[in-house]
Amino acid sequence: MIPAWLEAGFWGFIASSALLIGALLGWFIRFSPKVVAYVMAFGSGILMAALSFELVGEAREQAGIGWLAAGFMAGALLFSAVNRRLNSPGVKHRKRSHTQQPAAENTGVAIAAGTLLDGIPESIAIGLLVASGGKLSLATIAAIFISNIPEALSSTAGMRRAGRSGWFMLRLWGGIALCSGVFAILGAVFFGNAPLQVKALISCIAAGGIFAMVVETMIPEAFAETHEMSGLMAAFGFVAALALQLLEL
User: Fold this and answer.
1) Are 239 and 47 in contact (CB under 8 A)?
2) What 3-state class would DSSP assign to 16?
3) Which of 105, 142, 224, 234 is 20 to 30 Å from the Cα of 193, by its Cα?
4) If you ran DSSP here, which 8-state letter would residue 216 be given?
5) Could you tell me the residue ranges of all domains in the chain?
6) Left (φ > 0), alpha (ψ -120 to 50) or beta: where does 163 sit?
7) Angstrom distance (rounded) from CA 195 to CA 189
8) What is the spatial distance between Cα 176 and Cα 97, in angstroms, rounded to a whole number?
9) How far apart are the first and last CA of the chain?
10) What percentage of the chain exceeds 70 in pLDDT?
11) Where do the H-state alpha helices sit in the chain?
12) Taking a C-beta distance cutoff of 8 angstroms, is the pair 40, 222 a contact?
């Protein structure tokens, strides 16, 4: 039988491996900013559905509204505070289409820091779900996987314009994917055997962080290109996640 921490690390890496796929697409194919924005909006909707039905939904069965609200707001506050500290030009628009993204020398480092910040709550949530015996659904993995593709795609295209090498891209996105696996392992090891109320609190902290990430980074960049269509694409993503969840029941 596979240890829970190893399974958590595996799924954490798989969900973040989309960064490598997005990087390859951004390196070899020139997508229009609008296409990237459509994928971004779709990913926003599917992530919103995943945190609603999976993370907060399961936490409701383990703790009261006080724990849920406190955890959710704490996660959102933590993400927003750290994101504000990282809000340099490079990291602020880390999900922006490559025609608008700044091509500064330190863009790669800034994007790496921002992307890693985005992935921490997602990875911890995966680790917690696996270790606690919760149902790690296809919708959750798909939501995280899909949301990572446009980020790496657009950022890679921008860094390529700045003169970054393919080897640099491989190390950057591969390293972040590995770190995501590590954070999933940490979530499993430290919180897998915690009391139910603590698990619910951590789940809601992760959900709050993901919610803040979507609102502060994904939706604004999608709206910058798709405008009124961003809402439609996000709704489509939400419904797609709901359909995936219903298929697993």
Assistant:
1) no
2) helix
3) 142
4) I
5) 4-248
6) left
7) 13
8) 20
9) 24
10) 82
11) 4-16, 18-28, 33-50, 57-59, 65-85, 89-92, 107-131, 138-161, 166-191, 196-213, 219-226, 228-248
12) yes
Residue 58 has pLDDT above 90, yes or no: no
Q: pLDDT digit string (tens) for 67-89?
A: 899 999 999 998 888 878 776 55
- The DSSP annotation for 125-182 comes to HHHHHHHTT----HHHHHHHHHHHHHHHHHHHHHHHHTT--HHHHHHHHHHHHHHHHH
SS3 call for 4: helix
As a whole number of angstroms, the longest Cα–Cα distance in the chain is: 52
Task: DSSP letter for 56, please.
Answer: I
Joined together, the tokens standing for residue 121 give 């709550």
Residue 103 DSSP label: -
201: tokens are 């609190």
Residue with tokens 């890679």: 156
Q: Which amino acid is it at 215? A: V
